User: Which sequence fits this backbone?
């Protein structure tokens, strides 16, 4: 089941931010990426989603020029990724590492700016965009996980990159920290920066990405907006209380694609949930009906049903 609704870079809009063409990456007998072709236009905010071992980090590493494809071509703003990184077109926020606890937030950004040869104004601006102005004097070691990630974000902003790549940036953060982190990223992206992030928080992809690319076993299995991907995973669910029901009998109801029984509760998945609800109410003693759309997590599970469970 594959959806490819995201348009290719439109003619006349210039070079694609990212262009992967038939990319394969093998590690010995393991094929981590198995023929990915993907075009990302400047200004898109794209989530890479997939179960463990799907090939997300391997793809990110190739985009950053940290490894080379075994086959196929990777271009970032029309250049080999390592060149794009060297030119400051791309920077990354990774999950861990790279921070010294005994420096303050501001000192950390200033030192990084010196390495990049950036002026003082760039430091002030990066701190502001990452929402760190008020805690510039705080020691890094005293910062929360979310604040440390925003510090990595501020450092990544120093070259004023066209493309920002985030590999599972909010792992281990609490809800408030994640929210603050994504607000900062989102505000910044609204100014036109291209953002690609790998995450296993499905609600983050739903809330913050313009486009969701699902990867499974090194291949793209769905590509579209979160709404399109949810629609692709088909229909809605009717939940009802119906003691004694069997899955076989429920599956025979018109419009039901899939039936589950958990105790006295039944879950009927299908496209025409009105028809299913009508049947339940008129032909069975079912009560407490509830009809819900699938969320991205359901879509993810449906699309990767024969895979390992996502984290
Ligand atoms: N250096 C390596 N040597 C051998 N196998 C590797 C190497 N790097 C990745 N792999 C394998 O390639 C596959 C894809 O791994 P990758 O880390 O890209 O997945 P992922 O989607 O990022 O998963 P996760 O969500 O767990 O980070 C896995 O089977 C992994 O074990």
Assistant:
């Amino acid at each position: 089941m594959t959806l490819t609704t995201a348009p290719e870079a439109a003619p006349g809009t210039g070079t694609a931010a990212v262009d992967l063409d038939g990319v394969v990456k093998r590690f010995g007998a393991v094929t981590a990426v198995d023929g990915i072709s993907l075009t990302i236009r400047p200004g898109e905010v794209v989530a890479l989603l997939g179960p463990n071992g799907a090939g997300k980090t391997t793809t990110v590493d190739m985009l950053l020029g940290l490894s080379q494809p075994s086959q196929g071509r990777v271009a970032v703003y029309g250049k080999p990724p390592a060149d794009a990184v060297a030119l400051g077109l791309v920077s990354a926020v990774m999950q861990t590492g790279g921070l010294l606890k005994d420096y303050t937030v501001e000192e950390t950004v200033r030192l990084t700016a010196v390495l990049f040869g950036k002026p003082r104004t760039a430091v002030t601006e990066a701190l502001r965009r990452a929402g760190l102005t008020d805690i510039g004097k705080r020691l890094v070691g005293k910062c929360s996980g979310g604040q440390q990630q925003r510090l990595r974000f501020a450092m990544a902003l120093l070259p004023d990159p066209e493309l920002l790549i985030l590999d599972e940036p909010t792992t281990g953060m609490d809800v408030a920290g994640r929210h603050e982190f994504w607000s900062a990223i989102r505000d910044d992206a609204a100014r036109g920066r291209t953002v690609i992030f790998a995450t296993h928080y499905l609600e983050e992809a739903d809330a913050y990405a313009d486009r969701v690319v699902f990867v499974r076993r090194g291949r793209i299995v769905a590509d579209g907006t979160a709404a399109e991907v949810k629609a692709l995973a088909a229909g809605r669910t009717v939940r009802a209380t119906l003691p004694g029901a069997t899955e076989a009998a429920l599956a025979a109801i018109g419009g039901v694609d899939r039936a589950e029984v958990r105790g006295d509760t039944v879950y009927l998945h299908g496209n025409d949930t009105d028809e299913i609800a009508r049947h339940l109410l008129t032909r069975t003693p079912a009560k407490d009906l509830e009809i819900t759309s699938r969320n991205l997590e359901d879509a993810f599970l449906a699309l990767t049903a024969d895979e390992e469970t996502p984290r």
Residues 27, 30, 32, 50, 52-58, 200 surround adenosine-5'-triphosphate (CB under 6 Å). The chain has two domains: 18-231, 234-293. The longest strand covers residues 30-40. DSSP finds eleven helices and 13 strands in the chain.
